[in-house]
Amino acid sequence: MSARPILGAAAAAALLLLGTAAAAPSAAAPADPTQTVTVDAEGRIAADGTVTLSGTYRCLSGTGPVFVGSSVSQSTPTLRYGIGGTRAVCDGEEHRWENTGRAPGDVLKAGPAHVEATVVELRPEGILLEPVFHAVGNQDVTLVLA
């Protein structure tokens, strides 16, 4: 079996788990100041509803693949929409991340929003992949028309 479908499934699982990170803040991020994630104060939204979010991250190496995921909320703070995921390079250096995606329908508009970004590792644990959170960042942003 090719590794590509397995990595794709792992990435999808990571993005799904990112939506639960805020629901379980005790598991969200260790108090390690060398691992961080930030969100730029301005995001972009295109006429077709495509949202682009960005920021920086810094993480230390792990044993599994690591991703930067992001979600955005607007009028209802408890309703967040996943906006893409980016593979992370965990070498202790600061890197830029950028995620692009669309929420269902036309629920997101230009204006104030809230973004959560998460750096999560999918660590092999037996035959499963255990999510290990390296950093979580929250930021009030402005979505501007792209």
Oligomeric state of the chains in view:
single chain
Radius of gyration: 15 Å
Question: What sequence of helices (H) and strands (E) makes up the elements?
Answer: HEEEEEEEE
Under the CATH scheme, which architecture would be assigned?
Answer: Sandwich
Query: Count of helical segments?
Result: 1
CATH class: Mainly Beta
N→C terminal distance: 41 Å
* Number of spatially distinct domains: 1
Helix content: 10-25%
Structural classification: mainly beta
Low-confidence region ranges: 1-29
Say what the CATH topology is: Immunoglobulin-like
Principal-axes shape call = globular
- Number of beta strands: 8
Largest β sheet strand count, sense and barrel closure: 8 strands, mixed
Mean of pLDDT: 83
Q: What is the CATH homology-level superfamily?
A: Immunoglobulins
What proportion of the residues form beta strands (DSSP E)?
over 45%
